[in-house]
Amino acid sequence: MAQSPSPFWHFIFFVLLLFHAFTAASSSSFQLGLNGADAAALLAVKNSLTDLPGTHFFSTWDFASPRPCSTFAGVTCSLSDSDSDSNSGPSLRVTSLVLGTGLSDSPGLAGSLAASISNLTHLTQLVLFAGLVTGPIPSLLGSLVNLRVISLTNNRLTGPIPNSISSLRNLHTLDLSFNQLSGTIPPGIARLGQLKVLILASNMLSGEFPKFPESEGQGLFHIDVKKNRLWGRLPWMPVSLRYLSVSENNMWGPINGLESLSELVYLDLSMNKFSGPIPDSLFHSRLNSMLLQRNNFSGGVPTASSTSYGHNSIVDLSHNSLTGKLSPVLAGVESLFLNNNRLTGKVPDEYVNSISNGETKTLYLQHNYISEFPMESGLGLPETVSLCLSYNCMVPPVGLAACPASAGGQLSRPAYQCSVYRNSTARRPPLRRN
Q1: CB 46 within 8 A of CB 61
Q2: How many CB atoms lie within 10 A of CB 373?
Q3: 207, 151, 200, 158: which is closest to 180 by C-alpha?
Q4: Does residue 236 surpass a pLDDT of 70?
Q5: Could you tell me the strand order of the sheet in which 250-253 lies?
Q6: What is the mean pLDDT of residues 318-325?
Q7: Are 258 and 278 in contact (CB under 8 A)?
Q8: Are β-strands 49-51 and 109-112 bridged in parallel, bridged antiparallel, or unpaired?
Q9: pLDDT tens readout for residues 180-209
Q10: What is d(CA 24, CA 31) in angstroms, rounded to the nearest whole number?
Q11: CA separation for the pair 198, 51 (Å, rounded)
């Protein structure tokens, strides 16, 4: 009578069966090829770009390779269960395209961006690192509805920002900085509800900054449009903003729209034509960097006690028309620039204490109408401190050694300037309050 197989052999047979099924599935997956339309799009990309001398980015792009998704530099693919574009079965689709290495010793790529990038319909990320790529941004990028990141920086792209980008409802990051783009910022960009980061700095963009609907943009936390040709008033900004730079444009008017931005940690409005008072709500320690120099701001520094700004803090209100006495609110800022205004009176003791203990490392008060800095003559300051008090209505207790060359060589203002200014402010009628 034959014996039945032992439980041990049943187990071995079961394991072998599982192994066979697994290897068959793996072999099937391994044989899946890159979608044909995606392969053609990548070929067009390679034909429109070239490695600059010293760059070897495209050396891995061998279209005879059976596995481009795992061998092509900068290409990431995902398995698509079904190919709706060609009504075929599963295939590999390009989901991320990163052009260039981004390494400091790599010159990057040259050429232009192929319009056929728009055929990569599963693309979620498009990145172009620094190089010499020229020409326009393909307008058909707006058809890539899955895009979450567009970063095309530090090249020589020209022409306008395509209006079609306003259709990318899933877009999280748009960085087109350091190119030669012109025209206006498409208004629809301000209505992209998923947008978190908008960087258009160092281009030749003009026109007004788009207005954000109050129902949109609540998640936007980073805007950088510095070094363009934008003009007009600063619109209402999303309350979620943490970083805002519009420096070196031609914008004007008051900045009351920033009063509710309690999350700001970096603000740069320098080198514009903004005017009116600086909102009191901006003077808080969370806003660690506030750069408002070279505008037409008026009014005074808010009357408040000093705030603990901390390490690496910087406030630059220089080259404006600020008036009145300085309050202690900015004592403790590590780098503080209040020069070239119309500040008067005695500097509060808190500022003297802050530079004496090294908490404040740079304090520029030159070219004001300050009458007293209550520091004992000859008091030693830490070597790390730069204090400039020249060209005020007093004989400063320190010399010109720590002053920049732009401060000039005069230690004090001529007496007649101080008396004329005091008389003019004394005759000025008080502000009427509604």
Answers
A1: yes
A2: 20
A3: 158
A4: yes
A5: 49-51, 109-112, 132-135, 156-159, 180-183, 204-207, 229-233, 250-253, 273-276, 296-297
A6: 97
A7: no
A8: antiparallel
A9: 999 999 999 999 999 999 999 999 999 999
A10: 11
A11: 28
The model's pLDDT over 78-126, given as tens digits with 9 standing for 90+, comes to 998 755 555 556 889 999 999 999 998 899 999 999 999 999 999 999 9
**Per-residue pLDDT for 29 more than 70?**
no
In a 10 Å sphere around its CB, with 0-12 CB exposed, 13-18 middle and 19+ buried, how is residue 249 labelled? Answer: buried
Nearest to 189 by CA among 205, 160, 212, 218: 212
Cβ–Cβ < 8 Å for 273, 250: yes
Mean pLDDT of the chain: 88
Compute the distance between CA of residue 332 and CA of residue 350 in angstroms, rounded to an integer.
8
Residues belonging to the chain: 434
Host H or E run for residue 323 = strand 323-325
Q: Which amino acid is it at 281?
A: S
Which residues neighbour 405 within 8 Å (Cβ) at sequence distance 6 or greater?
none
Buried b (16+ CB within 10 A) or exposed e, 132-146: ebeeebbbebbebee
Contacts of 283 (CB under 8 A, 6+ apart): 301, 302, 304, 307, 329, 330
- Strands (DSSP E) found in 153-292: 156-159, 173-175, 180-183, 197-199, 204-207, 222-224, 229-233, 243-245, 250-253, 266-268, 273-276, 289-291
- 94 and 73 Cβ atoms separated by less than 8 Å: no
Q: What is the pLDDT of residues 253-273, one digit of tens each?
A: 999 999 999 999 999 999 999
One-letter amino acid identity for 241?
L
Are 158 and 183 in contact by the 8 Å Cβ rule? The answer is: no
∠ CA(357), CA(358), CA(364), 5° rounding? Answer: 115
Q: Which amino acid is at 379?
A: L
What is the residue whose two structure tokens read 């290897």? 23
Q: What is the tens place of the pLDDT at every residue in 394-418?
A: 999 888 888 999 999 999 999 999 9
Do residues 110 and 131 lie in contact, with contact meaning Cβ atoms separated by under 8 Å?
yes
Rounded CA gap, 73 and 164, in Å?
28
Give the CB-side neighbour count of residue 293, counting CA atoms within 13 A: 13
